[in-house]
Amino acid sequence: MRTTDELQIPVIRDEHVTLRPFTAGDIGAVLDASTDSHIPQITSVPRHADRAAAAAFITRQHDRASSGAGYSFAIDADSACVGQIGLWLRDLDQGRGTIGYWVRPTSRRRGYAAAALSALTEWAFSAVKVDRLQLYIEPWNVGSWRTAERVGYEREGLLRSWELVGDERRDMFMYGLTRSGGCSPAGASSTRPGTQLTT
After folding, report:
1. Virtual CA dihedral for 10, 28, 151, 16, nearest 10 degrees?
2. Are 192 and 15 in contact (CB under 8 A)?
3. Half-sphere exposure of 118 toward its Cβ, with a 13 Å CA cutoff?
4. What are phi and psi for residue 42, nearest 5 degrees?
5. Phi and psi dihedrals of 107, rounded to 5?
6. Would you call 91 helix, strand, or coil by DSSP?
7. For 73, how many CA atoms within 13 A lie in the half-sphere containing its CB?
8. Cβ contacts of residue 78 below 8 Å, gap of 6+?
């Protein structure tokens, strides 16, 4: 299991997005995400949040780093938070990391999720030294699994009744990418030399 070593959330700059720690100025993005029919079911974003609940969500993202659970980044594009992406380290002792992401309803279909996933994938392999990254995506969520495939993740199977979503157990596709497998498809991290790390 992951120890409780405190993590420092870096700033990762890509030509399209910046991954950075959440700030109080991101409350509007959380409020937008809280109106989505799906995001509150699979994340800790509260449904139909008020400003206090949105601020509490932001605090929890910092707590994840301070507890050593993982890295939660705001996805920033054009100086605004458009979503969230996280690298979770529960299985770090086994060389594995798990990624999850969402984009707020008003910012979709602009390539932000793919850019964020590509940048985080590259950083995780180089800085965190994981050997494998994985994602769990519901089969109906075509936009999300197509994003993963664009970045080079491969569908490895269907996990039946894998995760409790709301009050219902749901099947999940598992997607994976290994350090040795690389990221070769177009748009993948190995083809994105513009990613920069700011400490």
Report:
1. -70
2. yes
3. 31
4. -115, 0
5. -125, 20
6. coil
7. 29
8. none
Residues in contact with 140: Cβ distance below 8 Å, sequence separation at least 6, in sequence order:
none
Residues 6+ apart with CB under 8 A from 52: none
DSSP state letters, 121-187? HHHIIIII--SEEEEEE-TT-HHHHHHHHHHT-EEEEEEEEEEEETTEEEEEEEEEEETTT---STT
Taking a C-beta distance cutoff of 8 angstroms, is the pair 74, 26 a contact? yes
Query: In the β-sheet with 11-13, what is the strand arrangement from edge to edge?
Result: 154-165, 168-178, 132-137, 96-103, 80-88, 70-77, 18-20, 11-13, 196-198
Contact 21, 74 (CB under 8 A): yes
The pLDDT-based confidence of 154 (bands split at 50, 70, 90) is very high
- Which burial class, exposed, middle or buried, applies to 38 when counting CB atoms under 10 A from its CB (0-12, 13-18, 19+)? middle
Separation between Cα atoms, residue 118 and residue 139, nearest integer Å: 21
Closest Cα to residue 83, out of 8, 16, 22, 7? 22
pLDDT band at 112 (very low <50, low <70, confident <90, very high): very high
Q: At what angle do helices 112-123 and 142-151 cross, to 10 degrees?
A: 50
88-108 pLDDT, tens digit each: 999 999 999 999 999 999 999
pLDDT of residue 182: 57
- Mean pLDDT throughout 138-160? 95
Each residue of 54-96: pLDDT tens digit? Answer: 999 999 999 999 999 999 999 999 899 999 999 999 999 999 9
